[in-house]
Structure to design on (307 residues):
């Protein structure tokens, strides 16, 4: 069984801390209260030794999440937004999805005003964000930065793909690599119709590592399977969920103020422990990041999930 918590950790020193603090303050002074895109237009040109170290660690981490600590903290949420975008832009390109939430940043907190799964208080099942989307648009990386994390903060559950697959038998792995699942999406992506794609839940990336696809209730055995085959396909899906949750509970980390989690969305499934709103206060900011090749294909960073 793997060690608890993230294994790749970076602690910024005092100089690196001040570099990022100064960068955020300068951007906020230059364009206070502007749009996320306006912040990004400036941050794309910003470099620092601290960011180079974070980028190098992420690129070397494979499917392992990266925990960064001793980050500057801000009372103004706009400054925390700038910090989140700065970290995202360090490892790729922050993007917004036209037909998802239209924003470069998402605020994650318990609220009755959102239909998103992450807005609830129950256990957030292990998943990859927008895992049913094609390579041409799917977020490859998540950057999570808490603006507020006080009290009994719930853990973000983390399950690297290599560790999940190691818990599965060969027959289950074989089934999961077959395109015998239907991915259904539409309502949460703002469409007026449902899109159905036939997919595998385990794939090999160009790097040779496993890519896992899990997204709440989006996947089901494909239509037309025999009852026996359907049962085996459903059981393989269930085992993938179980293995991911087992690893996620071991690898879970309660990300606190002054920290950030950088997660390879394709290669590390994630979830969240239940939240007791009477025992904690939590506001998490999330940025979606894609590589240069995705932005080059679209020509901009406002991307459609229909691509």
């Amino acid at each position: 069984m793997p060690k608890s918590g993230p294994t790749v950790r970076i602690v910024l020193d005092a100089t690196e801390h001040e570099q990022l603090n100064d960068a955020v303050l300068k951007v906020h002074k230059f364009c206070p209260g502007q749009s996320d895109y306006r912040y990004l237009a400036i941050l794309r040109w910003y470099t620092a030794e601290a960011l180079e170290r974070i980028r190098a660690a992420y690129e070397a981490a494979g499917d392992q999440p990266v925990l960064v600590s001793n980050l500057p903290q801000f009372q103004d949420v706009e400054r925390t937004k700038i910090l989140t975008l700065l970290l995202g832009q360090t490892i790729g390109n922050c993007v917004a999805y036209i037909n998802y939430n239209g924003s470069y940043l998402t605020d994650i907190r318990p609220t009755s005003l959102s239909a998103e799964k992450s807005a609830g208080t129950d256990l957030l099942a292990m998943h990859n964000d927008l895992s049913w989307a094609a390579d041409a648009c799917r977020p490859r990386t998540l950057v999570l930065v808490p603006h507020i994390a006080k009290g009994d903060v719930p853990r973000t559950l983390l399950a690297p793909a290599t560790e999940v697959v190691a818990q599965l038998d060969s027959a289950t792995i074989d089934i999961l690599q077959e395109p015998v699942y239907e991915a259904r999406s539409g309502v949460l992506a703002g469409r007026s119709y449902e899109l159905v794609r036939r997919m595998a839940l385990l794939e090999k990336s160009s790097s040779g590592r496993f890519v896992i696809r899990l997204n709440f209730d989006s996947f089901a055995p494909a239509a037309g399977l025999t009852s026996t085959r359907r049962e085996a396909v459903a059981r393989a899906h269930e085992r993938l969920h179980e293995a991911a949750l087992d690893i996620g509970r071991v690898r879970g980390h309660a990300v606190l103020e002054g920290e950030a989690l950088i997660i390879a969305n394709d290669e590390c499934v994630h979830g969240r422990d239940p939240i007791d709103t009477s025992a904690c206060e939590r506001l998490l900011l999330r940025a979606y990041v894609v590589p240069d090749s995705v932005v080059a294909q679209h020509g901009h960073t406002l991307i459609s999930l229909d691509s």
Summary: The chain has two domains: 8-151+254-265+275-303, 163-241. Residues 163-241 form one domain. The two ends are 39 Å apart (CA to CA). The longest helix spans residues 227-251.
